[in-house]
Amino acid sequence: MTTNLPGASGLVLEENLVFEQGSPDRVGYSLPKSDVPDIDPKAALGAENVREQIAFFPELAENEVMRHFVRLSQWNYGVDSGFYPLGSCTMKYNPKINEDMSRLAGFLNSHPAWPAEMAQGNLELMHRLEAMLAEIAGMDATTLQPAAGAHGELTGLMLIRAYHIGQGRKRSKILVPDSAHGTNPASSALCGFDVVEVKSGPNGHLVPEAVAEAMTEDVAALMITNPNTLGIFEKHVGEIAAIVHAKGGLMYNDGANMNALVGVARPGDMGFDVIQYNLHKTFSTPHGGGGPGAGPVAVKKILEPFLPVPRIVRKGDEYSLDWNRPQTIGKVKGHMANFGVLVRAYTYIREIGQEHMRRIAELAVLNANYIRAMLKDRYKLAYCTPSMHEVVFTDKNQKDRGVTTMDIAKRLLDLGFHAPTVYFPLIVHAAMMIEPTESESKQSCDQFIAAMAQIDEETKTDAEAFHGYPRRTFRRRLDDVQAARKPVLRWRPE
Ligand SMILES: *Cc1c(COP(=O)(O)O)cnc(C)c1O
Fold first, then answer.
1. Atom number, ligand 1, closest to the C-alpha of residue 295
2. Is residue 311 part of a domain?
3. What confidence tens digit (pLDDT) does each residue in 125-167 have?
4. 469 CA distance to ligand 1 middle (Å)
5. How far is the CA of 330 from the centre of ligand 1 (A)?
6. Could you list the residue range(s) of the whole structural domain that residue 413 is in?
7. Ligand 1 atom 2: residue of nearest CA
């Protein structure tokens, strides 16, 4: 069977900056006459706040605006255009029913400042989602407020700090394994903790001895990702939790990799006390251009009193907001949360249903292991330990031929694939971290495998060519050093 790769140089059009287009007084809209009585903007706002003209403001007709953004979108690559194996990021397909539900008029037109009586449906959805997320993680209560995974980490750590203070003790350290995502030490530091790194064992696991050695009465919590960023299940977690708890510390689970566990295993049952979710990873909400996200935090009972306010309370069929929580850490976000994202995640969970939830994890793990099995004779595995939902290779075999991880990533673009995560996790030299997610069919996994196999063959016959890739993309290989040293961040007319 021949496998056609998606990479092709099709009709992709050049496009100037929007500021270089248009002509004065060209317009792309017509507005009805204002029904606001005449007021003088300068008198109302202060003359210094009112401009006659906006310098360099592009003025374009509707079709020019349309073409501009459609062309730019065609330069882009997303989960709607193809296979997106960016490890750790869980770039699964975002089902369009999520979008439909988030646009139901009752949700779309609600205002965050409405009193609870007017927002009963929204509160019911959030209350239900909190319960589902607590159940999936094996926890007792959830806050939906945090706006991203990293924000959830910070919130979880604030809860841990409040808990220790509530116990009348001050603890200053967070233990973080060397395989951790950069946000883990960053969130800990932002929360005022000192970060103590714990070395992973030779098989990529965290080993109880290393934790026991680092665990003192000064440690507030151990923060681990499970499966970790090597795609390896932390099989000693029960024993490790016992060590941490015995010294009065808490167990924090970075839940970014929950896609490998949902419906199969629950962090709360393993001994974790707090977890953040990344709804844009596990529950199929858009990653957006860093746009509105949600990183809910689920906790065990001992941390519940500290959760952000307001809490959504249900009495019979009525929902209300409880602000009277004396031990709360306060608010971590304006209003309630990024509500539209919550509607999408709720839809996804309902669409899958409790009985099928484990299929997400099973298929994600199956896909990653299929790719692993098909490529392991060509690309060197970072660890022989079994993989969960993602697999980490290195460029060791190709490096001998003069081709690096970066070269391979660039060549993949020519063949029509987004590159995997590269050079992360940091403890693996020249890592390529591949996460197909459960969204991909066997055919699309096979296409990717064929592309990786072709690349490996090319490194044997034409290694020289790799320094010039990509050749078929709209922009050629960029000069990373130049881009970092002399970034062009602002456009100004000549
Ligand atoms: C993505 C990720 C994060 C950060 O999540 P954001 O939602 O991007 O802030 C933290 N830890 C791990 C392991 C991740 O993969």
1. 7
2. yes
3. 999 999 999 999 999 999 999 999 999 999 999 999 999 999 9
4. 29
5. 23
6. 360-485
7. 256
